[in-house]
Every structure is written in structure tokens, then in C-alpha cells.
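R.M. (postdoc): so does anyone remember the format we settled on? I'll just put the C-alpha cells first.
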């Protein structure tokens, strides 16, 4: 048991900053903020918002975004404290190893792989849909065999149905292009992302500024047609209404559903090892990107639900359809084009983050070091794991129905946030004298509220997501005991020290 919960000292973590496998420090605060914004603003604001407003929360979705944003801010402050203390790759995995021990570190690392890989595949599918809608404006339509996966999951019927497709070719191609950019280098990736971020921020501001002229305040009444709650516990609704499928609806349930729109700000912390001044720049990147996106999200929802009554909002393309209903069909093309650019940047940042989690795990012997910790001698990127992640994401995006996995990404991310908030509480007690260039304010209120708000949203998700998360973590535990525990670098180090009779440092 002591081996399972052995923690990794800060001194050992800092040793990883040296050697041949170090990443290149090229990112400043503006680039890190851009990466955060690039990861956050994407399909969520253009697609998920319409569905959540129509089916779950109505105009109170504005408050749903506030609740989800506040939950993220609590977690972001905790992430920023750790990122300033330990500026190495790995994000929540590394923080868990330093506080909760090896077993929890493996669990959270495996959970992050789920978040980034499945999230990337889901985003690639969304990109394909937007790209095909842009092509349709020019009269171009792909063959059915190349426009989607072989089957999808019909939630109403509760079964898989054939689509007539063979592969979602656009999704596969965009994943391949992004993978090439990521292998080439972090600086090239950051430049590409900055361009995409500029395009989609212009589109979001267009939606807000132009749409504001078509807002009818009467559309905000009733403000909360489904109620202000929607809390469940393992499928049993505690507070609020349920829909025809027995799932909770309301403002809080809306926050749990649209939480996917916030996924990505934590990826900034995975690039701490590539920041020029990580102790200052990473906290700036995390907090600035989250605040910017939260303000934009709330403004977009206010405009959307003000332009169109909630029960007339399109669940497939809420924002663009709202402009069509307002007599501005030409705006649909602008929004669809921006959606392509926006989702591209989300895909890039998510796929950029997964190999860096693998890199941290490989350094610790949790996964094969020769493969996952191999940094390209010229590009200074974890190129082998980047290609592997690209192949995995392309396969899922091209052939699998991914709708059912969207909420799984939500619960996995909330679980990671919860662990980071708990880790701050533990680290303040176990290492009170450690240097903290950034400290989460109002300790211990912020981390405790972070834990409670994450639990609130996790319990507001449909119960099926808990089952999927438990199955995923169970598979991860099998892999840990088959490989990670036996090859743990920290375990081997301690055994060597014990055999020599020397005292264990850190």
C-alpha cells in the first residue's frame, strides 16, 4: 500500500527540467492565453448552446454558463498555483503524483488521456459537419460513403442505426493535418493556433455586436422554463424536473451539459515546460483565457436567446439559424466559416496536450519510456506519441459514433478538476514552505468550493456517464497493475536506495 501511494517530491519533479528530453521554452503569456482561448471556444459556443437552451435550460442558460465558468475559475486558480510551483509537463497528473501518490496519479493521467483523446475525436466530428456545411454553400456535397461513420447511436430508439457511410473522411483528414503541424514544433503550432483564434474571435464578436440589434427582451420570458435546478444523484433526481427520458433539466443541469464548452483551459498547464517564464506566464494564460471566454459565452447566450424564443432555437445550429430567422441568411456562411476555424484550433490544442501527458507518465515509467518520452532531436516535440494520438483520434473520428462519449468527456474533466482542487489542500499541509509564485486566493475556501461545485455538476449528469467513467478507470487500473506499477521509476529508485542502505531523499 505504501508503494501505491508513494508521492514524488518537488525536487524530483524539477530534475525533469534537465536532460535530452526537455521541451523547448518558446511560449509567452500572449501565446499561452491564445492556446487557452483556442482550446475553449469551438463547437460548444456554436452548436451545444442551441441544444442546451432548447432542451435543458432556456434563457437561464446564461446563468448555467456563469455556474460552469465559476466552477472552472475555482479549478483554474488551483491549476495556476501548481503550474507556478512545478513548471513541467503533465498537468493534473503531475500535481496528483506530488500530493496524492502514484495510484491517484495514474488514475488522473488515464482520465486526462480520455479527456483529450475522446474530446479531440468529438471535435473532429464537429469540424467535419461545419466543413461540409461550408462546402454545401458552394454546391459541393461529398458522397454519403465519405461523409460520416458507418453507424450512429439513436438516443430516442436506444440502438445503433446504419448510416450508409463508410468513413468520415473530412474528420480523418483534418486530424492528419493537425498531427503534422504538431510534430513540426510547438512554435509553429502556436502560430497556426493564433491565426485560427483571431478568425473565430472576430466571428464571436460579430454574433454579439450584430445580434444585439435583433434582441427582443420578451424572448427572455419565461427565463427558466425548466426551473433553476436539475440535480440528480446516480439517476435519481433530487431537485428539479426531468425530461421524457428521465434525465434532469434546469439551469444546473444545463451547466453540466454545456461544461464541454469550457474544456481546454486546463491544457495550458500541460505546456508549462514550454513556457518562457512559467511561474508568471502559465497562471496568466490559464486565468486570462478562462475569463475572456466566460464573458464571451454569456454574451452569446444572451444574444441567442434574445433573438429567438428558446423553444424555436435550432438544436443543430442554434447561432447560425437564429440569424436566418432574423432575416440575415448571409450571416450563416460567416458563422459556419468561423466554426471551421474555431474548431480547428480546439482540435489542435487538445491533440497538443495528450502527448505531453504521456511524456510525463513515460518519465515516471507508467508507460514505455522509449516510445512515449522520445523527443525529436530537431523539432523538440514528443513526436512518436503525437503520431500515435493522431492515429487513435483519426480512427475514432472516422469510424465511431461519438455522441454518447461527449458527456463522458465532461465527467472525466470534472473529475480531473476535483483532484487538482483536493491536491492544493493537501500540498498546503504537506509542503507549507514550498515556493509558490502564485497562490490560490482565499485558501481554503477556493479549493473547497472547487471540489463541491465539481461534484454538483458531476451528479447533474445522466447516470450512464458514471458507469462509463467507472469502466474506463477500471480498465486503467488493470493496465497500471500489469505495467505501470511494475515499471515505476520512483519504485525502482526507492528499491535501489533501500538496497544500498542510503537514506531516501524527497
Amino acid at each position: 500500500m505504501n508503494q501505491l501511494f508513494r508521492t514524488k517530491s518537488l525536487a524530483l519533479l524539477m530534475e525533469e527540467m534537465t536532460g535530452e528530453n526537455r521541451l523547448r521554452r518558446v511560449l509567452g503569456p500572449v501565446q499561452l492565453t491564445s492556446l487557452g482561448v483556442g482550446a475553449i471556444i469551438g463547437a460548444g459556443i456554436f452548436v451545444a448552446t442551441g441544444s442546451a437552451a432548447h432542451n435543458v435550460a432556456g434563457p437561464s442558460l446564461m446563468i448555467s454558463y456563469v455556474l460552469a465558468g465559476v466552477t472552472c475559475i475555482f479549478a483554474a486558480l488551483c491549476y495556476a498555483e501548481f503550474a507556478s510551483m512545478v513548471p513541467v509537463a503533465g498537468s493534473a497528473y503531475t500535481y496528483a503524483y506530488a500530493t496524492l501518490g502514484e495510484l491517484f496519479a495514474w488514475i488522473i493521467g488515464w482520465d486526462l488521456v480520455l479527456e483529450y483523446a475522446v474530446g479531440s475525436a468529438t471535435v473532429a466530428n464537429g469540424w467535419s459537419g461545419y466543413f461540409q456545411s461550408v462546402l454545401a454553400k458552394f454546391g459541393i456535397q461529398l458522397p454519403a460513403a465519405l461523409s460520416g461513420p458507418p453507424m450512429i447511436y439513436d438516443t430516442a430508439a436506444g440502438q445503433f442505426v446504419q448510416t450508409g457511410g463508410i468513413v468520415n473522411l473530412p474528420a480523418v483528414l483534418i486530424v492528419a493535418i493537425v498531427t503534422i503541424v504538431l510534430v513540426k514544433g510547438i512554435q509553429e503550432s502556436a502560430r497556426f493556433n493564433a491565426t485560427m483564434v483571431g478568425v473565430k474571435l472576430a466571428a464571436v464578436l460579430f454574433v454579439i455586436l450584430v445580434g444585439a440589434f435583433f434582441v427582443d427582451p420578451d424572448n427572455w420570458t419565461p427565463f427558466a422554463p425548466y426551473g433553476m435546478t436539475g440535480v440528480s444523484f446516480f439517476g435519481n433526481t433530487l431537485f428539479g424536473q426531468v425530461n421524457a427520458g428521465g434525465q434532469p433539466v434546469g439551469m444546473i443541469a444545463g451547466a453540466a451539459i454545456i461544461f464541454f464548452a469550457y474544456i481546454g483551459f486546463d491544457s495550458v498547464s500541460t505546456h508549462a515546460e514550454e513556457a518562457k517564464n512559467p511561474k508568471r506566464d502559465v497562471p496568466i494564460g490559464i486565468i486570462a483565457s478562462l475569463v475572456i471566454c466566460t464573458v464571451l459565452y454569456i454574451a452569446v447566450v444572451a444574444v441567442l436567446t434574445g433573438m429567438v424564443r428558446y423553444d424555436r432555437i435550432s438544436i443543430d445550429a442554434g447561432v447560425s439559424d437564429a440569424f436566418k430567422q432574423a432575416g440575415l441568411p448571409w450571416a450563416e456562411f460567416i458563422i459556419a466559416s468561423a466554426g471551421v476555424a474555431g474548431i480547428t484550433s480546439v482540435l489542435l490544442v487538445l491533440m497538443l496536450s495528450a502527448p505531453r501527458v504521456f511524456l510525463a507518465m513515460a518519465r515516471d515509467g507508467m508507460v514505455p519510456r522509449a516510445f512515449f518520452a522520445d523527443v525529436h532531436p530537431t523539432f523538440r516535440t514528443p513526436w512518436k506519441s503525437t503520431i500515435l494520438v493522431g492515429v487513435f483520434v483519426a480512427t475514432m473520428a472516422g469510424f465511431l459514433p461519438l455522441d454518447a462519449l461527449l458527456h463522458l468527456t465532461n465527467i472525466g474533466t470534472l473529475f480531473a478538476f476535483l483532484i487538482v482542487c483536493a491536491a492544493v489542500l493537501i500540498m498546503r499541509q504537506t509542503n507549507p514552505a514550498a515556493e509558490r509564485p502564485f497562490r490560490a486566493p482565499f485558501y481554503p475556501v477556493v479549493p473547497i468550493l472547487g471540489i463541491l461545485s465539481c461534484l454538483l455538476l458531476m451528479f447533474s449528469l445522466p447516470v450512464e456517464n458514471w458507469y462509463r467513467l467507472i469502466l474506463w478507470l477500471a480498465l486503467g487500473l488493470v493496465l497500471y497493475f500489469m505495467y505501470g506499477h511494475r515499471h515505476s521509476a520512483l519504485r525502482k529508485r526507492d528499491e535501489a536506495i533501500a538496497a544500498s542502505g542510503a537514506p531516501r531523499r524527497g
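R.M.: ...and that's the designed sequence above, right after the C-alpha cells. Also worth knowing: Strands lie at 151-154, 159-162, 231-233, 236-239, 241-242, 248-249. The first helix runs from residue 10 to 15.
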